[in-house]
Design goal:
GO biological process, one term: tRNA threonylcarbamoyladenosine modification
Oligomer: single chain
Protein name: tRNA threonylcarbamoyladenosine biosynthesis protein TsaE
Helix content: 10-25%
Distance between the termini: 16 Å
Largest sheet: 7 strands, mixed
Pfam family, one: TsaE
Bound molecules: adenosine-5'-triphosphate, magnesium ion
Subcellular location: Cytoplasm
CATH superfamily: P-loop containing nucleotide triphosphate hydrolases
Organism: Salicibibacter kimchii
Shape: globular
Strand order of the largest sheet: 1-7-6-2-5-4-3
């Protein structure tokens, strides 16, 4: 398992990092995002979409739970903010996550038990007004190149 920390100093930088993940992402990849309100999860999702070649505007689907977009691969944008971990409601998200697309889940902690183990976990921390820490955990070597690009490893 790799754990890498990025520091982003602007919304643009967060989106640029995410866009690279979108470019490298493959069928079945799932990005599980966690962090407080306004931590930058939706900006990351927008960047991911851009990297997948999606032109449509991607917004937080807070009231719809799931939005589907078509890019280089299908893109499933899930926002679990309104879902409760203790509510054992089966969402039936498997058909999306096992499919040939790329999935991003905001507030992933709320549906942790329903997520596959093979995932890229990204925790967002707000360090000041413009700065965010992104802690990325993955066992996929596919994203190694991105780690080299954005950190001083
Ligand atoms: N480096 C940064 N990266 C991302 N967002 C930043 C950064 N600096 C400041 N911001 C601001 O933080 C906010 C991030 O909003 P965003 O909707 O992406 O967060 P979120 O984690 O999805 O929040 P929510 O949980 O409410 O959906 C925006 O207002 C954005 O302008
Ligand atoms: Mg959001």
């Amino acid at each position: 398992m790799f754990q890498v920390q990025f520091v982003s100093c602007s919304t643009e930088e967060t989106m640029r990092i995410a866009e690279r993940f979108g470019q490298e992402a493959g069928a079945g990849d799932l990005f599980a995002l966690d962090g407080d309100l306004g931590a930058g999860k939706t900006h990351f999702s927008k960047g991911l979409a851009k990297g997948l070649g999606i032109k449509a505007m991607v917004n937080s689907p807070t009231f719809t739970i799931l939005k589907v977009y078509n890019g280089r691969l299908p893109f499933y944008h899930i926002d679990a903010y309104r879902l409760d971990e203790n509510e054992e409601e089966e969402l039936g998200l498997d058909e999306y996550m096992d499919g040939g697309g790329v999935t991003v889940v905001e507030w992933a902690g709320n549906i942790q038990t329903q997520l596959p183990n093979r995932r890229v976990t990204i925790t967002f921390k707000r360090t000041n007004e413009q700065e965010r820490e992104l802690i990325v955990c993955t066992d996929s070597p596919r994203f190694e190149q991105i780690f080299k690009e954005f950190t001083d490893l």
